[in-house]
Amino acid sequence: MDIVDTATRSRMMAGIKGRNTKPEVFVRRFLHANGYRFRLHRRDLPGSPDIVLPKFMTCIFIHGCFWHRHPGCRYATVPKTNADFWEKKFGSNVERDMRNKAALEEAGWSVLIIWECEIKHSLATLERMLFDLRSRDIVR
């Protein structure tokens, strides 16, 4: 049983953003500050990646740990109410993410996934991403 009425829950869920989230904007600012230019949410690519670096044939997804089920993460909890619905929802999210990643790689794109919790506590993930992009720039 939900602790709020249906109209309130609907309003709350409608407020959850899928684009321009805090972690996504943080990564974009980091890339831009380091001289990288990119495109956002290219709908012609599978999964509409959050950030696309065409020069490097690289797509970056910034995944929320809750919605995309970061393995072993303390933020990947399952709500206690309507658990069957949530398990099915999360399972389809993970399956869709795997399909999109495979389709992008099959088309020749490199795919980087950055988890929300990784950038919440440390810049190490972004620094590794920057190192990876710089090494690709040398190869080209």
Explain what you see.
By secondary structure, the chain is α+β, with helices and mostly antiparallel strands. It has a single domain (18-139), classed as Endonuclease, Chain A. It has helices at 6-14, 22-33, 65-68, 83-106, 116-121, 124-139, and strands at 39-40, 51-53, 58-63, 110-115. The protein has a four-stranded mixed β-sheet, sandwiched between helices. A hairpin with a 4-residue loop joins strand 2 and strand 3.
List keywords for this structure.
single chain, 4-stranded mixed beta sheet, 140 residues, 12% strand, 4 strands, alpha+beta, 51% helix, Endonuclease, Chain A, globular, 6 helices
The count of helical stretches stands at: 6
* CATH homologous superfamily grouping: VSR Endonuclease
- How can the largest sheet be summarized? 4 strands, mixed
Q: Write down the overall mean pLDDT.
A: 89
Strand order of the main beta sheet, please?
Answer: 1-2-3-4
Overall shape: globular
Instruction: Report the CATH topology name.
Output: Endonuclease, Chain A
The overall strand count is: 4
Organism: Pseudomonas bharatica CSV86
EC number: 3.1.-.-
GO molecular function, one term: hydrolase activity
Family: Belongs to the vsr family.
